[in-house]
């Protein structure tokens, strides 16, 4: 016995007495008994597949089951292909980072953004660096400016405990 899922039953697995039957061309044949529908499917050397089990009476279609299953799998695979998988990458900075180092990290962030990922930029204040929050914001602004060609600021720099975090999202060309 073969089934696609718990819902789609084929041939002898169908237990309902009356079925609404559709032939392989998509033409409605009407409501008939299960035995008549199975005989009709057998005559055409095809399968009787329950495509809508919750309807009253259930809708069954006469078709090639293997081909039907292949087309469903193909559609699911195509839908999966079109999905965009976005990740959040993290770049860490420090309060007293040099300009060249900011540019190097910005270049890396730009690669992530061009691949379609979001970037979380975090700057951790250690010890007495907490007194230099203005310098931290300045570093964040420089970083955002370096990435401004390929990104937009998704979330402005905010404090989360001892660190300053900012999110950059890829620019969408409309």
UniProtKB/TrEMBL annotation:
One of its GO terms (cellular component) is cytosol. It is found in: Cytoplasm. One of its GO terms (biological process) is ribosome disassembly. The keyword Protein biosynthesis applies. Residues 86-171 form the Translation initiation factor 3 C-terminal domain. SUPFAM superfamilies: Translation initiation factor IF3, C-terminal domain (SSF55200), Translation initiation factor IF3, N-terminal domain (SSF54364). GO terms for molecular function: ribosome binding; translation initiation factor activity. The keyword Cytoplasm applies. InterPro entries: T_IF-3_C_sf, T_IF-3_N_sf, Translation_initiation_fac3_CS, Translation_initiation_fac_3, Translation_initiation_fac_3_C, Translation_initiation_fac_3_N. PANTHER family: TRANSLATION INITIATION FACTOR IF-3, TRANSLATION INITIATION FACTOR IF-3, MITOCHONDRIAL. Belongs to the IF-3 family. This is Translation initiation factor IF-3.
């Amino acid at each position: 016995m073969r089934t696609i899922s718990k819902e789609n039953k084929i041939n002898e697995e169908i237990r309902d007495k009356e079925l609404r039957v559709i032939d392989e061309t998509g033409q409605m044949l009407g409501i008939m008994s299960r035995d008549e529908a199975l005989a009709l499917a057998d005559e055409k050397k095809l399968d009787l597949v329950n495509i809508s089990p919750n309807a009253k009476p259930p809708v069954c279609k006469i078709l090639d089951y293997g081909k039907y299953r292949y087309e469903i799998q193909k559609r699911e695979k195509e839908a999966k292909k079109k999905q965009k998988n976005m990740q959040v990458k993290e770049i860490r900075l420090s309060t007293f980072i040099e300009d060249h180092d900011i540019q190097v990290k910005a270049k890396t962030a730009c690669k992530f953004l061009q691949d379609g990922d979001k970037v979380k930029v975090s700057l951790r204040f250690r010890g007495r660096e907490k007194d230099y929050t203005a310098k931290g914001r300045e570093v964040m602004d420089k970083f955002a400016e370096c990435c401004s060609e390929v990104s937009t600021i998704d979330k402005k720099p905010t404090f989360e405990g001892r660190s300053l975090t900012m999110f950059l999202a890829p620019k969408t060309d409309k």
